[in-house]
Amino acid sequence: MIGREQQGKNVIVRATLLLFIIMGFFSMMAYLHTYNTPAQLLHLPIVINTWTFINATRVAYRTMQSGGVTERIALDGIEKGCNWCEAHPDHCDFTVGYGGSPNEWGQTTLDAMVMWGPTREVGAVGYMKRVKPAISVARKVMERTYHTILVGDEATTFAVEMGFEEEDLNTTRTAEMWREWKAAGRKPNFWKGPHNSTQGVTKRKEMNEKPEFGRWNHDTIGMVAIDQQGNVACGVSSNGATWKIPGRVGDAPIVGSGAYCENEVGGAAETGDGDVMMRFSPSNRVVQMMKGGMHPKEACERMVAEILRYYPNCSGAIIAVNKQGQIGAAYMNLPNGFPFCLQNSNMKDAAIITIKD
Ligand SMILES: *[C@@H]1O[C@H](CO)[C@@H](O)[C@H](O)[C@H]1NC(C)=O
Ligand SMILES: *[C@@H]1O[C@H](CO)[C@@H](O)[C@H](O)[C@H]1NC(C)=O
Ligand SMILES: *[C@@H]1O[C@H](CO)[C@@H](O)[C@H](O)[C@H]1NC(C)=O
Ligand SMILES: *[C@@H]1O[C@H](CO)[C@@H](O)[C@H](O)[C@H]1NC(C)=O
Fold first, then answer.
1. Residue numbers of the chain with a pLDDT score lower than 50
2. Is residue 47 within 8 Å of residue 343, measured between CB atoms?
3. Looking at 148, 220, 242, 354, which residue is catalytic?
4. Is 126 exposed, middle or buried (0-12, 13-18, 19+ CB in 10 A)?
5. Which of 16, 26, 114, 291 has a CA that sits 20 to 30 A from residue 221's CA?
C-alpha cells in the first residue's frame, strides 16, 4: 500500500520531472533559436565595422548584395570594404593604409588579416612595407599558401610575386610628421627607459613616461560581415601605432585579437591599444561568450571590463555581431565615446552608431 505521504512524494517527483522536460524543451528551443534562426529574420547581408568609416561599410554591403566577386561573398565584402580605407586613408583618419602612422624611422608599415568563418582559414601580413592593399595580400596568404602570417620585407616580396605593385607608403605628410617629431625630441615613444638606438641616444629627461594612445594614434578598421548565405567573415587593416619601434606588429594581424569569426556563432573585431589588447585575445573571447548564448553587447562589455581590471588606462573598443544579426559594442577610455558603422538589408543606407556613457 502506498501511503498518502508516498503518493504526495510521487506527485512531486512527477511534477518535477515534467518541469524538467518542459525546461529542457524550452532550453532546446532557445538553443535551436540561437543556432538555426532562419535567414529571413536576420536582414542579411549585414556588415559592421569600427569607427566612422562609413564608405567602407557601404562598399562591403554593396559587394555582398550584388553577389560578391567569388563564392566567398562575405569575404569579398570584407576585402573590398577594407580596400576602400586602404585606398582612401584620408577618409579613414590616416590609421589605415599608406601615408600614416610612421614608425621611429619614418616608415609606414601595414598589418592586416582576414578570416573565413566556415572553415576557420586565416591569412595575415604583419609589418608589410611598400604595398598598399594589405588586406588583399592577407587574403592571398590564406588562399595561396599553407601559412597564416607573413611579415616584413618578405611579405612585400610575396605580394610582388602575387602581382601587387610596389609603391612608397610614406608621403610628404608622413615626412613632415616625422621631421616635427624628431625636432620635438622624439616624443612620445614606446620605450620604457633611456635607450640607445640607431636614431641616437634618448635620455630619461627626453622620455615620455607613457606613450599616448588615442583616437588618432592608434586605430584600425575592423570589420565583420555575414552574407546572404549565412557565411561569416571578418578582417582588419591598420598601419599600426604612430612612432612604434621598428619591427612592431600590432593586434590587427593576430587572429583572435584583431578579429575572429565562427560560422555557427558570429564574429567580433577590435580597435585600440593593440599592444595591450592582444594579450587578451578579445575577439575570440567575445565569440566564445556569444557561443554560450550571451548577447553581443554583453559579451563586448564583459571583455572590456576584464581588460580594464588589468590595464585601467587602456583605450579601445570591440564590436560584435551574432548569427541572428544582433550587434553589440563596448569601449574603454575614449573621451568622445565610440562610433561604429552598420548596414543590413533592413536599412536604406549604412549608419553610424555612437555609443557613449
Ligand atoms: C564617401 O565617398 C564619397 C565619394 O564616393 C565622398 O565624397 C565622401 O566624402 C566619402 N565619405 C566619407 C565619410 O568618407
Ligand atoms: C619615402 O621614403 C624613402 C626612403 O626614406 C624615400 O626614398 C622616398 O623619397 C620617400 N617618398 C616620399 C613620397 O616622400
Ligand atoms: C648609450 O650609449 C652611451 C655611449 O654612447 C653610453 O654611455 C650609455 O650607457 C648608453 N645607454 C644605454 C641605455 O645603453
Ligand atoms: C592611469 O592614468 C592615471 C592618470 O593619468 C595615472 O595616474 C595612473 O598611474 C595610470 N595607471 C596605470 C596603471 O598606468
1. 1-2, 28-40, 215-216
2. yes
3. 220
4. buried
5. 291
Q: Which residues line ligand 3 (CB under 6 A)?
A: 194-196, 201
Enumerate the domain spans of the chain. Answer: 47-191+220-255+336-350
Global pTM exceeds 0.90: no
Q: Is 198 among the catalytic positions?
A: no
Q: Sheet holding 46-50: strands in order across?
A: 149-151, 121-128, 110-116, 232-238, 221-226, 46-50, 338-344, 351-355
Cell of residue 14, nine digits: 512527477
Length of the chain: 357
Model pLDDT for residues 295-304, shown as the tens digit of each residue? 999 999 999 9
Query: Residue 43 region, left (φ>0) first, then alpha (ψ -120 to 50), else beta?
Result: left
**Amino acid letter, 158:** F
Tens of pLDDT, residue by residue over 245-266, are: 999 999 999 999 999 999 999 9
CA-wise closest residue to 96 among 77, 75, 115, 110: 110
Q: Ligand 4 atom 8: the closest Cα is on which residue?
A: 313
Q: How far apart are CA 221 and CA 201, in angstroms?
A: 35
Distance 153 CA to ligand 1 centre (A): 33
Q: Which residue has the CA at smallest separation from atom 7 of ligand 4? A: 313
**Residue of minimum CA distance from atom 14 in ligand 4:** 313
